[in-house]
Amino acid sequence: MQKTQNNAFTLIELIVVISILGILTLAVLAKYADFKADARRASLSAVESSIHSMSNLVHLKAGLEQVDNGTININGRNISLFNGYPEAHWNRAFRYLLELSAASGFTRPNTRCSGFAFCGVGNRRSIPGIGALASGRAVMVWPEGYLLNELCFVYYVNPENGDPPTIGHTFDGC
């Protein structure tokens, strides 16, 4: 009697191969999610850098024009100042200064950002995850798809006492 050789996979071999493919798929998906979070943080870091730069430039121009409180004209827009720095107000300063106006919009703080790459709100007395401000007011900018209280945003605080603004971020929820 001649022995026939079976070249088929056993059920156990198939289960092992499918399990390995599943584990590799999960690893790739986890890495992809990290790339998206890294890209989101990088875009918010760019917004934070823009806020630093424009705050310094506005302060210099306000000094040259000798305006502490009031408005100065930048690119045809009147920008509100408080103690020589941009006022922490979305509609009177930040939507023009960040050059995001086509890609951003005012959004209520308890509303998910949609329809814009970035949403912003200003004139706030507290910052989610940080707390109430001792003095001054804040502007916050967060990315599309997020709520402000999900802690993925950049903030600007004008302390309203003549000190330079505080600019920072929280990426805990990104």
Task: Kindly describe this structure.
This protein has 174 residues and is an alpha+beta fold. It has two helices and ten strands. Helix content is 36%, strand content 26%.
How would you describe this structure in keywords?
174 residues, 10 strands, 36% helix, elongated
Fraction of residues in H or I helices: 25-40%
H/I helix tally: 2
**Main sheet: strand order:** 4-5-8-9-10
Estimated structural class = alpha+beta
User: What's the rounded overall pLDDT mean?
Assistant: 85
Beta-strand content bin? 25-35%
Number of strands: 10
Radius of gyration, CA atoms, in whole angstroms: 25 Å
Stretches where pLDDT is under 50 for at least 5 consecutive residues are: none
Distance between the termini: 68 Å
> How many structural domains?
1
SSE order, one letter for each helix or strand: HEEEHEEEEEEE
Q: Name the overall outline.
A: elongated
Let me know the largest β-sheet.
5 strands, mixed
Write the layout of secondary structure elements.
Elements lengths: L10 H54 L5 E5 L2 E6 L2 E2 L3 H8 L6 E3 L11 E7 L1 E2 L3 E2 L4 E7 L9 E6 L7 E5 L4
Parallel strand pairs: 4-5
Antiparallel strand pairs: 1-2, 2-3, 5-8, 6-7, 8-9, 9-10
